[in-house]
TrEMBL record:
Protein name: UPF0056 membrane protein
Keyword Transmembrane helix: yes
Membrane topology per record: Multi-pass membrane protein
Species assigned in the record: Thermococcus litoralis (strain ATCC 51850 / DSM 5473 / JCM 8560 / NS-C)
Domain of life (superkingdom): Archaea
Main location: membrane
UniProt cross-references to NCBIfam families, sorted A to Z: NAAT family transporter (TIGR00427)
Length: 210
């Protein structure tokens, strides 16, 4: 049971840092201007979180087959994933906020806010390559069903936290301001950097049998 909670909190902490829903608040608010009511923004937040969950759970469940198809090992993927996460951490440490916006072409192509919730909000703003890599690695490393359930639960809780943050986006921005959001982004970047380095170390140990 201790291993279950250890896996859950580690995966959830990594996911929350990688997804950085607080850092996505300014982008969400700029997109939410398309909503005509508060209920519309809530619906947008809900659909975004559902899209995040569906994206991550799909790659988590199919990750093992993806490894086999491409002939990759979990250790090699862990090293590559660690490098990717470390690069993301460096960007977060600079305090840079996401600059994804809806282009005029996307506005014309999007039939409804349902599409906007999926792209660009859920993918790639929140559940991007870093989040996908994280769930694939930890799901593959979990050898028993209890560990896999812990990863799935972490994905669910992380996705639900995205909904809570986006639902309260205006309050979050008013409370922290853009400076505060940048500060939180830097703190998450530092945490993510340490996790990325550990991921690379574990991958090297596993690959060379150290």
């Amino acid at each position: 049971m201790f291993l279950f909670f250890k896996t859950f909190f580690y995966v959830f902490g990594t996911l929350f840092a990688v997804m950085n829903p607080i850092g996505a608040v300014p982008v969400f608010l700029s997109i939410a201007q398309h909503c005509r009511s508060y209920e519309g923004r809530i619906t947008l937040a809900k659909r975004t979180s559902v899209a995040v969950f569906m994206t991550l759970i799909t790659f988590a469940l199919l990750g093992e087959w993806i490894f086999k198809f491409f002939g990759s090992t979990i250790d090699a993927f862990a090293i590559a994933g660690g490098i990717l996460l470390f690069r993301m951490a460096l960007e977060m440490l600079s305090g840079s906020l996401s600059t994804i916006k809806i282009t005029h072409e996307e506005e014309e192509e999007a039939l409804s806010l349902s599409e906007i919730a999926v792209i660009p909000l859920a993918i790639p703003l929140i559940s991007g390559p870093g989040s996908i890599t994280t769930v694939m690695i930890h799901m593959a490393k979990s050898t028993d069903y209890l560990g896999k359930i812990a990863v799935i639960l972490a994905i669910f809780v992380a996705s639900f936290s995205v909904y809570l943050v986006l639902m309260s986006a205006e309050k979050v921005q008013q409370r922290f301001g853009r400076v505060g959001i940048r500060l939180i982004t830097r703190m998450m970047g530092l945490i993510l950097a340490s996790m990325a380095v550990q991921l690379v170390i574990n991958g090297i140990k596993g690959a060379f049998g150290l």
